Amino acid sequence: MTKVIDILKRSRSPFASFELVPPLKGSDVSKLYSSIEPLMEFAPPFLNVTCHRDEVEYHENSDGTYTRMTLAKRPGTIAIVAAIMKRFSIDIVPHVICGGASKHKIESEMLDLHFLGIDNVVALRGDAIPGQRFFIPDPEGFAHTDELVGMISNLNKGRYLDPTVVNGLPTDFSIGVAGYPEKHYEAANMDTDIQHLKEKVEKGADYVITQMFFDNARYYDFVDRCRKAGITVPIIPGLKPISVARQIDLLPRSFHLDIPQDLVNEILKAKTKEQVYEAGVAWCMAQSQDLLRHGVPAIHYYTMGKADNIRKIVKTVF
Fold first, then answer.
1. Separation of alpha carbons 278 and 270, rounded Å
2. If DSSP states are collapsed to H, E and C, what string results for the chain?
3. Residue 164 CA to chain centroid, in angstroms?
């Protein structure tokens, strides 16, 4: 497999990459394949696959008491990666998160990916589970992404968590991390957030993929701040087209971002669902064209399991 950082270094022109959300538990694997197939005509050099931690639910018993249950809402990362690799000839970039796992379990998952021939990961902290106001790490896990990046970098050097492993086989992971053009919601300010990003890069991150944004000026300012702070790795912009009207309320709440008033006005004046959909496509298309004019190395599209609008955008822009 080809490492993402090598793809970025060798590419002579910008390209589109895509991020997939695994189907819910109980879905047929064909649902996963059908979300990928429309994008394959663009020959993406890699696909990202998100990772979702288990959730805690309380189910009421007949006697009025409650039973605490830990549930996995989606299939595991290893299964999803293997299924995609079986069907498609493409490099897969699974997300690896700190939340909900001990550092030793994460290391074991990393080695499973290595045995599958996976050479790329995106390292993330992960979000708090429903019912938790703030992220709470596993008692034996990582609290911050830079710790996870450091562990993966050590694996690349043959250094395992288990001290009894001497001269361990080195892995060869290319590590991506997340960047936040509008600041991570927990960071005190933008300078602090960029310092945290720099720490991830210093621990071994090869490149950055940004959270979605709808104002390109935020991305350009973010990149400028990163460069001034000494972050020199590629910074790939991440985009998502609005597809339904309620997203102008939901996305700011979920991702702590701003939606420009011009885009809000376009969505609000739309008379039909189809007009909302087309307004979202047009805005994302204009964003993409402007980013390409500014020389970005690639554009990463968040599909959220739906490919039609992304396909329309990429077909026009690239």
1. 9
2. CCCHHHHHHHCCCCEEEEEECCCCCCCCHHHHHHHHHHHHHHCCCEEEECCCCCEEEEEECCCCCEEEEEECCCCCHHHHHHHHHHHCCCEEEEEEECCCCCHHHHHHHHHHHHHCCCCEEEEECCCCCCCCCCCCCCCCCCCCHHHHHHHHHHHHCCCCCCCCCCCCCCCCCEEEEEECCCCCCCCCCHHHHHHHHHHHHHHCCCEEEEEECCCHHHHHHHHHHHHHCCCCCCEEEEECCCCCCCHHHHHHHHHCCCCCHHHHHHHHHCCCHHHHHHHHHHHHHHHHHHHHHCCCCEEEEECCCCCHHHHHHHHHHC
3. 34
pLDDT at site 180: 98
Exposure on the CB side of residue 100, measured as CA atoms within 13 A = 19
CB 16 within 8 A of CB 289: no
pLDDT digits (tens, 9 = 90+) for 134-191: 888 889 999 999 999 999 999 999 999 998 888 889 999 999 999 999 999 999 999 9
Torsion of CA 232, 237, 238, 242, to 10 degrees: 160
Residue 188 backbone phi and psi in degrees, to 5: -65, -35
CA distances from 24 to 54, 80, 214 (A): 12, 11, 28
| Phi (first) and psi of residue 122, to 5 degrees | -110, 120
Beta carbons within 8 Å of 277's beta carbon, 6+ residues apart:
243, 244, 309
Task: Tell which residue, 290, 317, 311, has the closest CA to residue 40.
Answer: 311
- Output the pLDDT for position 30: 85
Amino acid present at 19: E
Name the residue type at position 21.
Answer: V
